[in-house]
Amino acid sequence: MRMKPSRNFLLGLCSMLALGFLYYSSGRISLRGWGHKSLYDKQGFFLKLDGTLPLELMYKYGNLSEGACKPGFAAAKMTAIYPKFTKLAPMFLDPNYKRFAKIGDYLPPFGVKLQEKIIDILLSATKSYGLGEEIDSMSCKTCIIVGNGGILANKSLGQRIDDFDVVVRLNEAPVKGFEKDVGSKTTIRITYPEGAIQKTERYEAESLFVLSAFKALDLKWLRYMVFNQRLRSTDGFWKSVARHVPREPSDIRILNPYFIQEASFKLIGLPHNNGQMGRGNIPTLGAVAITMALHNCDEVAVAGFGYNMSTPHAPLHYYEKIRMSAIKESWTHNISKEKEFLVKLVKAGVIQDWTGGICGAGC
Ligand SMILES: *[C@@H]1O[C@H](CO)[C@@H](O)[C@H](O)[C@H]1NC(C)=O
Ligand SMILES: *[C@@H]1O[C@H](CO)[C@@H](O)[C@H](O)[C@H]1NC(C)=O
Ligand SMILES: *[C@@H]1O[C@H](CO)[C@@H](O)[C@H](O)[C@H]1NC(C)=O
Ligand SMILES: *[C@@H]1O[C@H](CO)[C@@H](O)[C@H](O)[C@H]1NC(C)=O
User: Fold this and answer.
1) Does some domain include residue 321?
2) CB of 311 closer than 6 A to ligand 4?
3) What is the pTM assigned to this prediction?
4) CB 249 less than 6 A from any atom of ligand 4
5) d(CA 58, CA 106)
6) Enclosing domain of residue 311
7) 280 in ligand 3 pocket by Cβ < 6 Å?
């Protein structure tokens, strides 16, 4: 994909900042129709966000012992505030992906259109399409998405993060040296070429490397990584990219692009733009990962998302010194719309926010 330099720059800037999740405006909810008040907002979420579950589920969950994993909890809560939710959407592409009709008609990042050939090649090389036997066979799994926000620093949440069955990390977020605050376990690391860890020694010993493809070129890049070939050119990327990913093909996955599509067009309500990438219609990787977890985990928590309004001079990311005041408006993302979505999830108890940055003082 070719982009104008100014757009390249903004895309780069934005994704550097994306995971800090500066949320500056609080959500306004618009009502449908003229005069008569709908029960739903524009995206199809109930305006009343208490997330009340059907009685039999309340009993079922109420009877579980404290702290036990609640089967189907995240999806049930989600359905309670967003009746259109349907759980079925596999985490990663597998050889049956063409049967998953929702992604066939969209180009990347929202689908697989015109990429079928390279995806087939990639999938026949990786040969693995799940989280691994142990996790896949669990009847109930808890997941945490660890965002990169400075709000994670100095909270000593590491041990509690490691207690989750699935720990999801994003892009280059380091673990080594930060274990006390961010934990030491990484089940999957979701990234794209420009966001991936570049120094091979910085990869953790074990984790699945998951590509979230934002453009066709990202899949081509993955082919170089999977087949361990030398990347000859980096034309078309908006900043430098990883040139080697120290992972076996069987530890590499392709994230189902449906989560980008659903997060953007349905859950957040970003412009459809004829199904193509355009101004302000790309969700951040954090929102994509949360959407993935709603479909694939029984309980979902997040940490390191959002921003503490009372500390503007605090670091943007937990691992570097850029301050939050450095953040700028972005071309690709719509952080304020995205915040409205995440606030709904936290308010209704669909996800637990362990660092409290999504709502701040606000919900
Ligand atoms: C939960 O416990 C109550 C009281 O012990 C019992 O009456 C009820 O049947 C249980 N519900 C389920 C779904 O197990
Ligand atoms: C965390 O604590 C260290 C050492 O006390 C301090 O230097 C750093 O600024 C703190 N980070 C944040 C985000 O508060
Ligand atoms: C974000 O969405 C709001 C509301 O739809 C819109 O007014 C604003 O221009 C959008 N921002 C970007 C960067 O697209
Ligand atoms: C935000 O910062 C203030 C001041 O340092 C602190 O008291 C508060 O606990 C922080 N809130 C969160 C959610 O970290």
Assistant:
1) yes
2) yes
3) 0.89
4) no
5) 39
6) 5-353
7) yes
